[in-house]
Amino acid sequence: KKDIDRDGNDEIAIDQNGDISDGNTDGYEEFSDPDGSSDDIYKIDGDQDGQTDFLIDTDGDGSPDVYWDPDDGIATDTDIEEVGGRTVIAIDTDGDGDFDSYYDPIKDEIETIAGADAASKRSDDEKEREESSSFIASLSAAILESPALKSLPSALGAIGLVTGASVAVAATAVPLLPVSPTPVSDGFSSFMRLLGFLGKRSKKREDWGVAFDRDTRRPISGARIDIISNDKIVDSVITDKEGRFGFLASPGTYSLQASKEKYELSIEEDKDELYGDLYTGKVFAVREGEMAKLNIAMRAPSIDWKEFVQKKLAAYSSLWSVIKKDAFIILFYVGFIASAAILYFNPTVLNLAIILAYLAMIIYSLFFRSRSYGTITNRDGKPVPFAIVSFYGEDDPEKRAAFAVSDVFGRYYQIMENGRYLMKVQGQTISGQPFDKNFNIEVEEGVVREDLEV
Predict the structure, then answer these.
(1) In sequence order, which residues have a C-beta less than 8 Å from that of residue 292 and are 6 or more positions away?
(2) What span, in angstroms and rounded, lies between the C-alpha atoms of 243 and 210?
(3) Can you name the residues that pair with 75 across neighbouring β-strands?
(4) Fewest CB atoms within 10 A around its CB: which of 20, 42, 67, 160?
(5) Is-cis flag, bond preceding 70, omega within 30?
(6) Which residues pair with 389 in a beta bridge?
(7) How far is CA 377 from CA 386, 407, 411, 415, 436, in A?
(8) Taking the C-alpha atoms of 360, 362, 368 and 372 in order, what is their torsion angle to the nearest 10 degrees?
(9) Pairing of strands 224-229, 252-259
(10) Cα 365 vs. chain centroid, distance in angstroms?
(11) Residue 356: what are its φ and ψ, rounded to 5°?
(12) What digits encode the pLDDT tens for the residues 295-341?
């Protein structure tokens, strides 16, 4: 256990297969944050010791922030860097404060680099940021001391000060626009890309059992699953962010019980269109070397999902929510307008440099930054929650290759191998109107995040 996201609550590394004690171990294979505030983005072997380490997203922006090696007790910050035309994650595997390895999620490879080179690169980056901050501060001071600025109304002078602060922040916080929506539903906890850059799933869905919501079809994270034999709990696990779980049990007969706040086990059906065979509450047998991995349907009888969605959408589109989401954008453009006014009254090289910096950030945000998810909307532009998105290969159009379920705000993504697919989108709008629509798509970057209208 360790407080990885520094919120005062411990995160947990779990030995799913119970092999730590026999010496031939792959370590702690699964990560869990009981309060749902952080997620493991990638599972890697950062220090090449044969045991699982985690790259963890602690702030919900879809990018890894912390490298955690639970078997060695090391937790260090990460960084995103460009190396040889590739976007990689720099990690410190020995906790000495210097990045010593790169992880390439596209190739799923660890590359060790010389500690001196890593330290030198880090030092150069810090020096560059310091010089940039010093230059920005000098620009701001020069502008504020300008006689032309002092002749402007005091309000414009205050805006000029804010402008300088905005540019200083922008020097270390590019890109500014557009601000991505903050994930609200904990069901949308598997965002894992940064600037068009993605990793791979560590396990296929069929390698595990999955706990999911019977009504929304979304996986349930943080549910406790107990395996029982002779009326005694033999073992317990917590489902991961994709609802996955599994037991390596001795041969015998067992039953399961599942628990999560507001949820109960649903055993009315023995098969689901998406997840396949379901646990029905009956005793089942486990053979030698077999993993107990039945899919579990759960339901939340106290939750009216239609009302829940409407409340979430209303809160997300409320004036206060819009102000919170767009505050920095508004500040950015107010600063831009103020800087343009200052340039008009005092056309100096310094003021021109600030305007050019603004324009460069705007161009980057509008034309070069991409989103990490797609949205499903109806013809009125309203989001469609809990839509089922299925993918079929060109060579076998009858066999579903993968599926995803949109979240409360109609957002979804799906990691796929590059190629051409038939994508089927099914469900019903908030008003209850059913739909079933097909799209032909071509995957080129390993992920599907198309905006769809149904």
Answers:
(1) 209, 227, 246, 247, 248, 249, 254, 256, 284, 286
(2) 5
(3) 68
(4) 20
(5) no
(6) 404, 425
(7) 11, 12, 9, 21, 13
(8) 140
(9) antiparallel
(10) 20
(11) -65, -35
(12) 999 999 998 888 888 888 787 777 777 677 677 777 778 888 888 88
Q: Among positive and negative, which fits the CA dihedral 110, 115, 117, 120?
A: positive
Q: CA 333 from chain center: how many Å?
A: 28
Whole-angstrom distance between the N-terminal and C-terminal Cα of the chain?
45
What pLDDT is stored for residue 202 in this prediction? 38
CA distance 163 to 354: 9
The residue type of 341 is: A
The predicted-structure confidence for 177-201, as pLDDT tens digits, reads as follows 332 222 333 433 343 333 333 333 3
Length of the chain: 454
Judge whether 184 and 316 are in contact, CB under 8 Å.
Answer: yes
> Which region among 250-259, 319-328, 420-429 has the lowest average model confidence (pLDDT)?
319-328
Which residue matches tokens 């949308």? 188
Whether residue 255 contacts residue 230, with contact meaning beta carbons closer than 8 Å, is answered with no
* Residue pair 315/280 in contact by the 8 Å Cβ criterion: no
Six token digits for residue 319: 């004036």
This prediction's pTM: 0.46
CA gap 223, 226 in Å, rounded: 10
Burial 68-88 (b: 16+ CB within 10 A, else e): bbbbbebbbebeebeeeeebb
From 367, 389, 364, select the one nearest 376 (Cα to Cα). 389
Contact 101, 91 (CB under 8 A): yes
Question: Could you tell me if 310 and 430 are in contact, meaning their C-beta atoms sit under 8 angstroms apart?
Answer: yes
Q: Can you give the pLDDT at residue 266? A: 93
